[in-house]
Amino acid sequence: MAVTDMPEFIRADGPDKVTGTGRYTADMTLTGQLVAKFKYAEVTHAIITKLDVEAARAIPGVFAVLTAADVPDIRFTYGIADRTLFATDRVRFEGEIVAAVAAISDDVAQQALDAIVFEYDELPPIVDLEAAIADGAALVHPDVDSYVVTGDTPHSGNVATHSSIAMGNAEEAMSNAATVVTSRYVADASHATPIEPRAVVAQWEGERVTVYTSTQVPFDARNLVCEALELPANRVRIIAPHLGGGFGGKCGGHFEPHIAALARAAKRPVKLVFSRWEEFIAPDRRREGMIIDITTGVDADGKIVARTGNILLDNGAYLADSAFFPQAAAMHVAGPYVIPNVFIDSRLVYTNHQPSGSVRAPTAPQGCWAVESHTDEIAAAIGMDPLDFRRKNIVTTGSVGAVGQTYDEIGLDQCLELAAESAGWGNDLPDDEALGISVGWWPSFHSPAGAYAKMHGDGSIQVITGASECGTGSVMTLRMLAADELGVDQTDIELVYQDTGAAPAGPGSSGSMTLFNHGRAVERAARQIADQIKELAATELEANAADIVLADGKASVAGTPTVSVPIVELAGSSPDGEILGSATTEDIEWPEIKGSTCLGDQGFSSWMAPQFSCHVVRVKVDKDTGVSRVLEVHAAHDSGTIINPIAAHGQIEGGVTMGIGQALTEGTQYDDAGRQRNAGLLEYKLQTIADAPKITTQFVEIYTPNAGPRGAKGLAEAPNVATCGAVNNAISAAIGKRIYQLPMTAERVWAAMNDISLEEA
Amino acid sequence: MTLTIATSLDDILAGLAQGARPIAGGTDLVVGSRQGKGSLPDTLIAIDRVAELNTIDVGADATRIGSGVTHARLMTDTTVVEQFTSIADASALVGSPATRNVGTLGGNVMNGSPAMDTGAPLVVLGAKAELASTSGTRTIGLDELWTGPGQTSANEDELCVALVIPNRPTASGSAYVRLEYRRAMEIAIVGAAASVEFDGDAIGAVNVALTAVAPTILEVTGLNGIVGSALDDATLAQVAEIASEQAAPISDLRASDKYRRHTIGVMARRAVDAAARRAAGEQIAVPVNRALGVGAVQ
Amino acid sequence: MSTPSNRTLNAVELQVNGVAYPVAIETSRNLSGVLRDEVGLTGTKEGCDDCECGACMVLLDGQPINSCSYLAVQAQGREITTIEGLADGDDLHPLQRNILAMGGVQCGFCTPGMLMSATALLERNPTPTEDEIKIGLSGNLCRCTGYAKILDSVAATAVEIS
Predict the structure, then answer these.
(1) Structural domain containing residue B40
(2) At B233, which CATH number?
(3) CA A42 – CA C135 distance, rounded (Å)
(4) What residues in B contact A628, CB-CB < 8 Å?
């Protein structure tokens, strides 16, 4: 569908963003503000022997220099509290913060960093996943057993968390299978790479601090400041100005406590703005590297009868928000297939790499890439067309999936047909081109989220939400929901968001939850106002409140639209002078699972309102060089009801393009010590507009009960899941060889084509 | 630190004699200083407004391209596109429209990077560099100019004022092809330029130079064997083999030496092919990479 | 290393969006920093510091440049146009209007640079092909949109204004 044929989408933040008047965090300037800079370890594994900041403190123009000695001695992080604000006795990755300075200028701050005496004894870096879990391996956290553990987080040595899915008897079923296929896939780490490098500005007023920051989840950032600096929640206010993209990389809190602590010590506002290099190396959000071993057995009819899997995920040095990753990865390796016998073991492994954390559908692009490549290998092994093989094995309405979850009405089968049809599956193509297919899935998450709605005496309306707008348009969509409840135009509503001082708590822009959770809260809060207006209208119009209809800015009696009163007037007649609504999300029931057990259950044992997708890509390979290019992507998605089509298409196009980058060019390269070698945008290559393929998007709109507003499911992460797998299947079909490492760089494609082994770090 | 905006070549040369360093678009210099590759010089002289450096003069025997001519102009200038097409190919691949807009031929050449895009075309076209200082002007070959990665033999007080390129015989063509992982915003992983002259149906002369496979731009030798042959698959395969053999690539984060050695042969073959087709009168739009979908496939 | 006391400041007048701004700046300051911190126009963004993202794109005498890697003192005597200079008073430029209406804006961080490149492109080529639009905007990275709606909106604007 052409964008001009879609319903208008009015972005409340649009004029700000196209005229340059919108303020992002780095655009903030507070009177007297100082420049913050961090001293990074730059070594990946070492014991600190000396840290002396006195010379730095003595430099004129330096207002504060902080180390671990200057902040509360607190370890934090859900799952395993393994993290401190500053390095204490040792450093575990190159971007670990050793000290922070606040000074009057960039130059002086740099002088202060240069004056810090930081000495250490290097330890052998722990960067190999298999070596790290071997008996007797040195530990990234020798004291891990003394850390506080929360949730269902089985851990041991360098295994930070461990999860497994078991259903039926995989071993026995495998031994009876007609055909068994085994594959090993290795995915390199990659990055969220928002175009806005993160920034933080903190200012104290008495005992209260306001932190402006580029976080996707202001309430998590607030909680981190509170926890790390031992402050009560009522003295910390987080405001996120416009957010220049996040893609998960800006989930949670990061550097807010450091800057708040600097501002307190310096008694001046302090501002941190990251360089692109820092944006690559310092955050604890990186898409994790993975090693995935999968074995699948199929019967003589081509039905999958058993699957076993062994997954290692590179957690890096600290846990960040990655406790659930092993379970999410296990679900992806199981895949959206009917498999009666499953055993998948999945471990998150500490290393001296940058910590892994949420990046758009964590574990999914890699997991899906592996399992969908493997799926094509199975189809090839039994001589079945990849599309037919999926037709035979995917989950459909009423089927029982790999963890024993019975699916309600779902549209994966329709996605498969629509994408294949759109791409012309089966048509002849030139020798250097081929189609590849992949299916993907991703859950929706229930989370408590609050919303306030307020109709002022003049009839103007505010919706106050804890949601965050990282660009997707999902917060912008919230006022459409409120407008419909209230029978007003969406432009009559102003949004207040990204301010913990004003809004009720919520998951912000994380986990595709904005519309799914905040949307339900906004709808309910707006409905509360609507009910009150109906009461006022009922009195005014001498009718029953139940018969009042709100539309076009008027309250009228059902069936007699001429008997009406403008909503504006009713607002003024409220005895309180304004009308208030306050609501949270209602609980959603998790789907029941049968016949399956999950070790290390972090809430992924079954998938609520799962979103499904099928991507078919057309790829052209330069067979002399291995350079591959995606020419077309045909995407079909079941994300339930689509409320804002323009924004929804934008999510697919953006997610697919990010997926192509991950498929072909985006991979972090490390040196032997575990330092990033390509921490810049020349060597870490995002797709440009010149690379952008034609993307055709179709939605299978199924009203999903027990889901988001109007039967909607999540959408922002789902498009990032299936693309890499489809690209591999297309490349492999074009060259007759398979690629087992992600990203599938030109060199790796060339090596596969020519059976050349690359000695890679 | 100071910056003077020069309005004449004399201004520049006087400034250089006093220790100033030249800056044109600043893309290499400013980015380099921010990446810690070296701090900005203490005294800068801006050379981008000096008209004398921005001329393209076609003489009887040679064409003189001012060092201040931007990539944006090189890729569209009629003389360059028609006569020295490989330079236009190369300039069209540099960075983005913005970097092509301020980046200059002189800046590219004097940066001395083995990955410079205009270097290989200039070599196959037989260009010489004209260096000027307050004490005079000299013209030297590019093999004499580039002494190592990021190094030139120019004296501190010398400015490269122009590249002088012999005018082209009839039935000749040139092309520059590079390996690209993306279709834009790339840097040369490997690249090859070729110049081909036909003598009737046979190859009369052929020159090939390679980008990013040696400490400086590498001119391929030993191609005499294909002079007199027809331009067919066997000839092209020979070009690829010779180029791969002579390359001395390194392994780095962009590619392994093995892959570079293979792909440089592919690029050399494609450059010779495109140059020959141009020599035969075929119109292949600038840049070859996009017109033929080589490197990053269409 | 410079300290506050030994900085040499240049008195420079920058012509930005038709207004002359006198600023006192060190030679090493880049144009994007001066526009943002001295002139007070923060619509020009900084995303990479090395000409790789295009968020800092401004027009210098009508031509696009990466202002992060251009010395501000070199811009003396030239006309600088930033995103703040694109609209005609309260009337959005057709590119601004179309990119918004067609969903080409998500996080908005690349948008100013993208619009400046698009403006320069349509100035020099009012009827670009799809490939010409792609090359014209190839120096501006966008992580949100996958570029589809940006491409559509520039194409639509070309049709509208030609």
Answers:
(1) 1-52
(2) 3.30.390.50
(3) 38
(4) 297
Q: For A574-682, where are the alpha helices, taking DSSP H only?
A: 645-664
Set of chain A residues whose Cβ sits within 8 Å of the Cβ of B184: 688-691
Shortest CA distance to C83 belongs to which of C130, C49, C32? C32
* Residue A617 Rama label (left phi>0; alpha psi -120 to 50; beta): beta
| A290-445+591-753 is a CATH 3.40.630.190 domain | no
Q: How many domains does chain C have?
A: 2
For residues C106 and C80, membership in a common domain is answered with: no
Q: Report the alpha-carbon distance of residue B66 to residue B52 in Å, rounded.
A: 7
**Chain A contacts of B296, Cβ < 8 Å?**
622, 627, 629, 691
Question: Of C68, C85, C102, which residue is a domain's last?
Answer: C85
C160 inside 8 A of chain A by CB: no
Nearest CA distance, C53 vs chain B (angstrom): 9
Helix (H) or strand (E) holding A97: strand A97-103
Chains touching C, CB cut-off 8 Å, 3+ pairs: A, B
Domain A290-445+591-753 identical in fold to domain A450-584: yes
CATH number of A14-123+198-273: 3.90.1170.50
pLDDT of residue B263: 97
C146 contacts in A (CB within 8 Å)? 650, 652-658, 692, 695
- Which candidate from A18, A104, A244 shows the least CB-CB separation from C115? A18
Q: Give pLDDT tens digits for B27-47.
A: 888 887 776 667 788 899 999
The first and second tokens of residue A743, run together, are 């990203």
Residue at B115 is within a domain: no
Which SS3 state, helix, strand or coil, does residue A412 take? Answer: helix
Which tokens belong to A31?
A: 């009177």
- Position with higher pLDDT, A536 vs B39: A536
Strand partners for A34: A270
Contact yes or no for A349/A314 (Cβ under 8 A): yes
Q: B residues 1-60 near A, CB within 8 Å?
A: 35
**Is B128 inside a domain boundary?**
no
Do C77 and C103 have their domain in common?
A: no
Q: Give the ranges where B224-256 is alpha helix by DSSP (H).
A: 233-246
Beta carbons of B181 and A627 less than 8 Å apart: yes
Q: What are phi and psi of A187, to 5 degrees?
A: -110, 130
Q: At B294, is the pLDDT very low, low, confident or very high (cuts 50, 70, 90)?
A: low
Cα gap A303→A252, rounded to integer Å: 42
Q: Describe chain B by its helix, strand, coil percentages, rounded to 5.
A: 35, 25, 40
pLDDT digits (tens, 9 = 90+) for C69-125: 999 999 999 999 999 999 999 999 999 999 999 999 999 999 999 999 999 999 999
Q: How far, in Å, CA of C86 to CA of C90, rounded?
A: 10
ipTM metric: 0.96
Residue B183, domain member (yes or no): yes
d(CA A264, CA A204): 7
Domains identified in chain B, total number: 2
C17: containing domain:
4-85
Q: Taking CB atoms and an 8 Å cut-off, how many pairs form between chains B and C?
A: 92
Domain boundary among C62, C85, C108: C85
- For the record, the structure tokens of A199 come out as 């920034």
pTM beyond 0.80, yes or no: yes
Q: Has residue B130 been placed in a domain?
A: no
Distance in angstroms (rounded) separating the CA atoms of residues A245 and A216: 9
**Domain A450-584 adopts which CATH fold?**
Aldehyde Oxidoreductase; domain 4 (3.30.365)
| Same-domain pairing of C33 and C66 | yes
CB A177 within 8 A of CB A298: yes
Q: Are residues C58 and C117 in the same domain?
A: no
Give the domain ranges of chain A.
14-123+198-273, 290-445+591-753, 450-584
Is B34 touching C (CB cutoff 8 A)? yes
Minimum distance, in Å, between the CA of residue A109 and any CA atom of chain C? 11
Q: Residue A583 and residue A341: Cα distance in Å, rounded?
A: 43
